Amino acid sequence: MSAHNPTALPDTESSSDFTFSYEVTQSPHAVFDAVTNVRGWWSQRIDGAPDRLGEFVYTVPQIHTTRAEIIELVPSERVVWRILDNQFGTSPDEIDEWAGTTVRFDIEPTVSGIRLTFTHVGLTPALACYDGCARGWTRHAHDSLHQLITTGVGNPITPAIEAELISEP
To answer: Does position 9 have pLDDT exceeding 80, yes or no?
Structure first.
């Protein structure tokens, strides 16, 4: 893994940023490995290497594209992405509400195991995409990532799921 980059910390979190936590009994290393296995919990359509410093691109054709830069990797402790640009839908005129936000995964030991805290810093209820984005992150970073951590198999977006999403009215 790449080294910690202390100069690339995200903006300060606010109480209205989208966040959740859950505890698991797996090791901090196992949780970190699952978080960096983005193809295993978010989408199989990831271009780039989401397990080291640098950029990657997430795409669901006609629905969502995100270009992110991994700015911090602290094995067994933290992963931070900076969202460079983002597009919802097919219109280039869509407002890029995620650009400049950060996504944090904090891994902390607890008395009974490990707590994973997910925070999308800058994703607040004031944004037009908040409700849909909160549902998406709950599906992916809460449900699918939790499943990947605890069972070894997540529920990422696959080409079959993409086809269903594209065909929805």
So the answer is: no
8 Å CB contact between 135 and 11: no
User: Is the pTM above the cut of 0.85?
Assistant: yes
148 by DSSP, 3-state: which? helix
Phi then psi for residue 131, to 5 deg, are -60, -50
Q: What is the mean pLDDT of the chain?
A: 88
- Sheet arrangement for strand 102-109: 18-24, 114-121, 102-109, 78-88, 64-74, 54-60, 46-48
Q: For residues 19 and 118, what is the distance between their CA atoms, to the nearest angstrom? A: 5
Give 80's strand partners. 72, 104
| Tokens, residue 59 | 């795409």
- Tell me the β-bridge partners of 59: 65
3-state secondary structure of 37: coil
